[in-house]
Amino acid sequence: MSDTRLYVDIHVLQTVPPSCVNRDDTGSPKTAIYGGTTRARVSSQAWKRAVRQMFREGLIGQEEIGERTKKIVALVSAEIEALAPGRDATKLAMEALKKAGLDKISEEKGTDALFFLSREQARALARLAAQGSEDKNAFKEALKRAPSVDMVLFGRMVANDPSLNYDAAAQVAHSISTHAVQNEYDYFTAVDDCAPEDNAGAGHLGTVEYNSATLYRYATVNVREVAEHLGKARAAAVVRAFAEGFLRSMPTGRQNTFANRTLPDAVYIAVRSDQPVNLCAAFEKAVPASPEGYAEASKARLVRCAKELYASFAPAPEQAFSIGRGLEELAPAAPLPAALDALEAAVSQRLGGNGVA
């Protein structure tokens, strides 16, 4: 077992009904060619956004969540107003951010690109500005320290100053269907409630493209990197929150139209000390259509692929957990809360903690 590497792999099989979870520039559901066939696809960006939204719903404390925005002048200005009422907070915020190295910034438009800022970083800049500091290094250090939980997990890139970057501790794969898909079209009409009685026509008509699929979803977390930035005592709870957010979230694409709010069919969580292992090879050959659907066949494929891989290329994980039915050959099954408790305890113990009851 490695003392320097610790990863949590999360494998999810999830069926979604007719839906347009994530659309491209033409409004069509995103797809990809894999194994020579067209698959439904949901981008990693879409699902990471959904996880961050779940953090805001109570998985992570509000003080530990950052803001990814161009409007960082307003964020720092608000903190300055709280520390130094009556002063020109906007001017001080602009000066503070420029001293920190963010030159391409304006009061109206903010930064030229989205910038990830934690609440503690905004406060640190505000304190320096309120004190009248002229130390540019201190301002830059304020932007480097005290990252938010979501900044540590999903990373921060600052193109004009790489020293402010944070490498993402979590990686999320593009979700793909385990089987071939063909997009379909819903032709719809809307009736004008105030139209005259002798008007038989529709007030509006159009089409919406959609598909349905059993998706294979995968994410991995570098636990040691989370612990490095947030501390060992906090890391286990953060990994648990990420796992719960990843399992329970759903991107918001056309939810009002399709109400595609499903939960996973089955989940396999692996704790590894060698390297992350994506099991998408289980579906390189598309699962064929059958009267039993795709979910059960996909579970069997995932089990077979994992066993073959563990026998040939990588050892089985040190610990593993499954949720739902069908993956018990890989790990004992437990309800979601119990599996998350066990995951948190396992991570805590490997980081040198006392575990979680």
Describe what you observe in this structure.
- The strands form three sheets. Strands 1, 2, 3, 8, 9, 10, 11, 12 and 13 form a nine-stranded antiparallel β-sheet that branches. The protein has a two-stranded antiparallel ribbon with strand order 4-7. A two-stranded antiparallel sheet has the order 5-6.
- The model has no long low-confidence stretch (mean pLDDT 94).
- The protein has 357 residues and is of the alpha+beta class.
- The protein has two domains: 215 residues, no CATH class; 81 residues.
- The chain is 36% helix and 22% strand.
- It is flat.
- Helix 3 crosses helix 4.
- The protein contains eleven helices and 13 strands.
Main beta sheet: 9 strands, antiparallel
The overall number of domains is 2
The stretches of 5 or more residues where confidence is low (pLDDT under 50) are none
Instruction: Output the helix-strand order.
Output: EEEHEHHEEEHHHEEEEHHHEHEH
Number of strands: 13
What is the rounded distance between the termini?
24 Å
Rounded mean pLDDT is 94
Jot down its keywords.
single chain, alpha+beta, 2 domains, 36% helix
Lay out the secondary structure.
Elements: E1 7-19, E2 31-34, E3 37-42, H1 44-59, E4 67-69, H2 72-83, H3 89-99, E5 105-106, E6 110-111, E7 115-117, H4 119-131, H5 136-144, H6 149-154, E8 170-172, E9 175-177, E10 184-190, E11 204-222, H7 223-230, H8 232-248, H9 255-258, E12 266-272, H10 295-312, E13 319-324, H11 336-350
Antiparallel strand pairs: 1-11, 1-12, 2-3, 3-9, 4-7, 5-6, 8-11, 9-11, 10-11, 12-13
Compact overview of the structure:
Helix content is 36%, strand content 22%. With 357 residues, the protein is of the alpha+beta class.
